[in-house]
Amino acid sequence: MTTFGRLSDLDDDALRAAYTPPRLPWLRLNFVATVDGAAEGGDGTSDSINNAADNRVFHLLRDLADIVVVGAGTVRAEGYRPNAKPLVVVTRSGELPPTLLEGDTSQLYLATGSQAPGLEKARSVLGDRVLVLGSEGPDPVALRRALEDAGFVSLLCEGGPHLAADLLAAGLVDELCSTVVPMLVGGSHARIAEGAPLDVPHGVPLELHALLESDSTLLARWFVASRG
Description:
24% of the residues lie in helices and 25% in strands.
């Protein structure tokens, strides 16, 4: 059954209930995009296209998650910094983005491969919170398994587009939370999934689970049809 409504009609408890995963473990992606499909604005970040409605759901999804999964490129572009929520950075190089070292790193994890040039330096900072999950780069299947084995069963991936595509291609994603803002930006910008085509020729089928509206912003929960 698909739920439709206005975001403003839901208080915090109702919104939390509307976005609670139907089961655990659960892996969701969360992205904002413009009507013409750009996942970033002219400054190369999502900050220039998101809005108050998107921010409200963004923070709720973080609160519901056990851990946030994010690619190192997105960490650098968006200027992520340490916070109380556990965060795992996915990186082929094994290098820790500098902004994540500006404070408490006790909730920081890094997923990489055994051949990563930055592996030993990362281990000197994070110890056993460095997850070696492959050779040249972290394997997505091994990543989800390792996080679940560590007790993280509500997983939230905030990007970037290449990591999202890798997770989708591996059949690991249960849900896409998408915000479409009433804006056109034109030009050439990243989409929410970038890389090789997904499951040619049919793509990844989705089922609409919920759709909320706020001043022409559309916030949707899409379940991956084969997993939701």
